[in-house]
Every structure is written in C-alpha cells, then in structure tokens.
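W.,

You were right to be curious about this one. When I first looked at the sequence I had no strong expectations either way, so I just let the prediction run and decided to look at it fresh. Below is the sequence, 275 residues in total, followed by the output.
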Amino acid sequence: MVEPTHRSISIARQCELLGLARSSFYYEPQPESEQNLKLMEMLDKQFTATPFYGVRRMTAWLATQGEAVNPKRVRRLMREMGLEAIYPKPNLSKAKDNVRKYPYLLKEEEITVPNQVWSTDITYISLPQGHIYLVAVIDWYSRYVLSWELSNTMDVTFCLSALDRALTQNTPKIFNSDQGSQFTSLAFTSRLEQKGIAISQDGRGRALDNIFVERLWRSVKYEEVYPKAYTSVKEAMQELDKYFHFYNNVRLHQSLDYQTPATVHFKQPNTEVNM
C-alpha cells in the first residue's frame, strides 16, 4: 500500500516498487452505470460456464439475451473484469520491455507432494452497487487454498497480502501465475525470488496452464457466489470465509479420491462432518 506521508520513500518510488503507474495512485475510479453492472454480471456467469468465449462470442451471446451491445463495450467490460478467453492460440501480445519474462515450468513437472507447486489467480464478483475482486493461492497437489483476499481494485497490494499470508505457512518449490501485471510486478516477483522460489508463468489464454485455479473458481462461483448473491463486501467476506473453510476441510474432492484438501495437504484424517 502506498503511504503518502512516508518520510524517506517518495510516492513515485513506492509506486515503482509496487508495480503501479503513479497516475493510478491519484486515480479515483468512477462507478459503472446500472446497465453496465447488469452486463458485467451476465458476462461473469457466462464466462464461468464458457471460459473459451472471447469478445465476439460474448457480444453475440448478449444479443441472444436481448442485449444489443457493441464489441468495443464488451471488450472494455471484460478487461475491467479481468476476463480473457482461454483457448490455445499464439501469443500475439508482447510484454512490456521493462517486465522480466518467466518460462512456464510445469509442462514436464510431475506433482507428487504438497508445497511443490502453488498457483494464484484473480476472479471477479458482482455486487448490487459495483464489484470486487478475489485472489487466492492454491496448492496444486492437495487443492488446498492457502490464502485469499478481496479488493475493490486490481492493483498488486491485495495479491501481495495473499502471498504473504500463504508464505507464513510454508514455501513452495515453484509458484505459477498468469502474466497479469500484478504477478509480473517487481514487488511480487522479488518477494518470490527472495524466498528462493522458482517463478513459472503461463502463456496468455492457455486453458490448461493454470487449470486447478480455474476449477477452483468454477466451484466458488457455482457453489457459493451465485447462490448467495452477496449484497455487500462485508457479506462477501464473511460468507467466503465460511466457504473456504468448507472447501478445505469438509468438501470431498473426487480428484483426491474423495478426501478433503486439508487431509491430503497435512496428511491427517478428516474429522469434520460433511454437508
């Protein structure tokens, strides 16, 4: 978090260390219109069901729902929500020259133990008067959610908070993420490098590179977010806290031979009652 009154580090330097544009510190986001919030809620639900839908397909789908919206508007809203269609495609976008590029390290990696590979990602949650973002850190082997945070902006601060909370528990061999600006920022990558953690970053729009986080988001959305339809940030915080406890300690996972993530992660028998 930028501290305007810091005696020794200027705002410009703090923004640089956090991977933020200085203008973003002074920027006050304008609330979206009621119509845009409705469209964003529709886009979120459809994207969760069909994550391979890009701007053109989303525009066409909205038309079938009686919403005639031009592609430019759909593109802006999807960008605001952090949505990018996942499907195999060539990488046509170039990273900024001042951003270090990291290879994808998991193609040949056999995941055999907890804390071998952690991964992170951000998803969007719609609220009646706006929206918030959810970030989580998950262990690839056990599917255990090590930490999570909410924010009303997509800056790096809440991602760092989630990372720091996860690192108080253990240290992975490899940390995987997409190429979002939060995860390519110096503040984020330096935190990992200081711990001796290998950094892996998947290609833009590649469906299988971060598959376990994508599956987590589907579970969170369909089992918790959509049925509850939170009305406030406070409610979202409280209900997600309950859900992630349930997800880690109670919910049986087919991929884990019907064990809970906590049982696999800590190799302890599950004693909680399933719901």
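Here's what jumped out at me. The two ends are 39 Å apart (CA to CA). And, maybe more interesting for your project: The beta strands are 117-127, 130-139, 145-151, 174-177, 198-201.

Coffee later to discuss?

I.
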